[in-house]
Amino acid sequence: MTAQRQLLIKPTFLQNMLALPGKELHQIMEKVNMLTGDPEPAGKVKVPFQRYWQQGIRLYRLRAGHYRVFYTFDKQYVAIWTLRRRDESTYEDEVDLEDDELTPEELAGLEQAAANARQRPDWDAIIAKMQPKEETTPFPEPITEELLTRLRIPKIYHARLLPLKTREALYDCHGLDDETILRLDEYMFEKPIELIQQEPTLQALGGVDDLLRYKEGELLDFLLKLSPEQEQYTRWPLHASGPTMVKGGPGTGKSTVALYRIRSLLQQLLQEKSTAAPRILFTTYTNALVKSSMQLLQQLLGDSMRYVRVQTADTIATDVLHKAHAYKDILDEKTLQEILHKAVAEVRFEGSPLQQRAQRQALIRMGNDYLRQEIDTFLVAREVESLLEYQCMARTGRKYRLNGLQREAVWRVYERWKELVEATGQETWQQRRVRAARLIDSLPSYRRYDAVVIDEAQDLEPAALRLLVKLCKAPNRLFITADANQSIYGSSFSWKEVHQDLNFQGHTNILKANYRSTQEIDEAAHSYLTYGALEPIEYTTHYVNSGPMPDVRAVLTANHEIQLLKDFFTRACNALRLTHSSCAVLCPSEGEGRQIANDLRVEGLEATFMSGSDLNLKRPGIKVLTLKSAKGLEFPVVAIAGFLSGRYPVIDEQAPEDEQAEMLARERRTMYVAMTRAMRALLVVVPAQHENELLTGFDSTYWNLSSKQ
Ligand SMILES: Nc1ncnc2c1ncn2[C@@H]1O[C@H](COP(=O)(O)OP(=O)(O)OP(=O)(O)O)[C@@H](O)[C@H]1O
C-alpha cells in the first residue's frame, strides 16, 4: 500500500469548494482523498495538463463527475490548486488530450518540456488575455439565492446582487465588501492558472476532514506551508549554544519564520516540565507590525496565544521606566531643534583661538542635522561616556570621517545639549532606551521571558537591543531577524558591540527564496539599490513568482500623475483579478499622501491616507501611506508617487559631501524598502521637469522605461 501524502491546497480551491453543492462535494472529497494515496497519472483519469507543462508548471487533472480537479504532487505531498466544471467548448485543448492516452514516451517528452520551459512566461500576452475584451462581460449563469447561500455571501448583500448580470456591474456595485466581489468573480470567471500558481500553498494537516470542516464553517483558516529551508529555522533547538539570527532579502519570509519559531518554541517549552507557564516575547519595529503580527500569531497559536506578549521595544522601555518609577515625558520635535541650536550657539571650546575657530567651522560644515544624528544614534544610543572614549571609537556606519578636533567640537556641543535637555525634565527616545536598558538590572522582580524573538532588528538601536537581550532568560533563547539593506533609520553596527551575548557565530542563516514579490520587481529594486546598499545584495537566489517588469513613468503635472495612478490601478486590478483594496500609493510625506488620496477620491476612487499610528489595512479602497510607514507591510499593487513638488529627498546641500552621500544612501534604502512592498505590480512616478538623485538609476534591463516622458 502506498503511503498517504500530505494534503496541500491553494486558496482558489477553497473558494471553489464553497460553491459546490452537497452531492458533488462528497464525490470531489473522495477523489481528493484518493489522490493523497495515489496521484500518479493513470489512463484517461489522471493526466498531465500539457499546455502548462510546456510552461514549466507540472499540473495534472483528474476527472471527477462534472468537474476536473487540478493538482500537482511530489513524493511528500499532493497540492490541489483548483476545481473546474467540465465544459467541452471551453477546454478544447483538454478534450484533445483526454481522448488520447499518453504513452510513456509522450510523458517523458512533457517532462523534458517542463524542464526546458522558460523561467519567465510572456506576461504581456497573459495579461492581454486576462483583460476584458468587450465593454461588458456577462455572467455565464444567473446569480440566484441558492448560489449566494452556497458561496456564504452575507444575506444583507443578496438583494443588491440578484439583479446583476455583468462583471462590470459587480465591480461597480456600491456597498459590497471586497471578499464578496472576489468570491463571486472567482465563481463566475475561472482564475488563470498562472495566478493560482502564485497563491500561497496551505496545509490541510487533518486531510480531507479539514476541508469538510472548512465547508461547514468550523475551521476558518489554514496554515501556510513553509519551505524546508524555512521550516528548518523554525526548529532551531532550545538548547543551542547561542542566539540565532535569520537574515535574508525582502520577502524571503523572515517575519513568517519568526512567527512559526514562536510556535515551535512554545511547543518545546510546554513539553519541558520545569517551565511553569512559558512566557515568550515577540517584538517588532512599529505598532502597525505589532497589530498584524498579533493577528497572525492568534491564527497560528489559538489559545496558546496567552503565553505570548507582542510589543515594540519602545513600549517595553516605557513600561520598564514606569515600573522603576523613573518615567519622563518625551521631548517634542520643535523643542529638540531649539535645544540643539542653543547648544551650538552657547558651546565654549578649549585650545588656542585658531583651534577654537576651526572647531566652530567644523560644526558649521557638519550642519545641525548631521550633528543631531551623531548625538542621537551614536553618542546617546551607544552610550559614549567620555571624550577619550569618543576619540578612540570606530564610528561604524558613519561615512563622514571626523578628526580629533572635530570630535572634540561635537563632544562639547553634546555636553551642553545634555544639560539643556536635563533642565526640561524630559528626554529623547534614545535616552529613554538607554535608561531602560540600564534600569532593568535594578528591577529583579521584572519578569524575564523564557524566549525573545526580535523581528526587523536592523532598525533597533543598540540600547533597545540590549534591553531585549536582558529580558531573555538565556542567550540561546534569542531569535533575531534582520536585513541591513532595509535599514532606514539607524546606521549599521556590529552585533557583538551591542552585547556580548549577541554572538551569532555559527548561528546565522540566510533565507534565499523570495515569496512576496515577482522576480521582476525584486531584481528591479535590487538594481536601483546598487548605490546605497549596506550589505551585498545578491542574497536572493530563488523566486516563486514572476510577472511583468515594473514601470517608471515621468509626469509634468499633479493631474497627469493622478490619471496615471488611476489607469495603473485599474489595469493591474483587472489583470490580477483584484479590487482597489489591494492597491497602495507610497509617498514621501504625509502632505503629499493626503493630497493624492484626496485627488483619487475626486476621480471617484475610494482612497484613504493612513498615518503610521493609524493604519487600518482592512479598510476598503486604496491605501495611501508614507514610504516609511510601509516598512514590513506588503500590497499586491504598489505605486510610489508624490515627488512633483521637488522637495524630496531633503538633503542639506551645505553639509559635507560624504554626509550628503550618506543621507542619499539612507533615502535610497527607504525607496528600496517601499519598492519591495509590491507583490505583483509596481509603478514609480517621477517628475519630468527636474532631475532628482533619488529618482535616478533605473536600469532599463530591469525597469520598463519605454513610456518615460
Ligand atoms: N513558504 C512560503 N510560501 C508561501 N508564502 C510565503 C512563504 N513564506 C513566506 N511567505 C509569504 O511571503 C510574504 C513575505 O513574508 P515575510 O513578510 O515573512 O518576509 P520578510 O522576509 O520578513 O520580508 P521583509 O523583510 O521584506 O519585511 C508574506 O506574504 C508571507 O506570507
Automatic annotation (TrEMBL):
**UvrD-like helicase ATP-binding domain location, by residue?**
227-518
* Protein residues bound to ATP: G248, G249, P250, G251, T252, G253, K254, S255
Q: Which UniProt keywords apply?
A: ATP-binding, Helicase, Hydrolase, Isomerase, Nucleotide-binding
Q: What class of enzyme is it?
A: isomerase
Which InterPro entries does the entry mention? Answer: DNA_helicase_UvrD-like_C, DNA_helicase_UvrD/REP, P-loop_NTPase, RelE/ParE_toxin_dom_sf, UvrD-like_ATP-bd
Q: Does the keyword Acyltransferase apply?
A: no
Q: Which is one Pfam family of this protein? A: UvrD-helicase
Q: Which domain of life is it from?
A: Bacteria
The answer to whether keyword rRNA processing applies is no
Catalysis: reaction(s): ATP + H2O = ADP + phosphate + H(+); Couples ATP hydrolysis with the unwinding of duplex DNA by translocating in the 3'-5' direction
Q: Which GO terms describe its cellular component?
A: cytosol
EC number per UniProt = 5.6.2.4
For molecular function, the Gene Ontology terms on record are: 3'-5' DNA helicase activity; ATP binding; ATP hydrolysis activity; DNA binding
Which Gene Ontology terms describe the biological processes this protein takes part in?
A: recombinational repair
Question: What name does the UniProt record give this protein?
Answer: DNA 3'-5' helicase
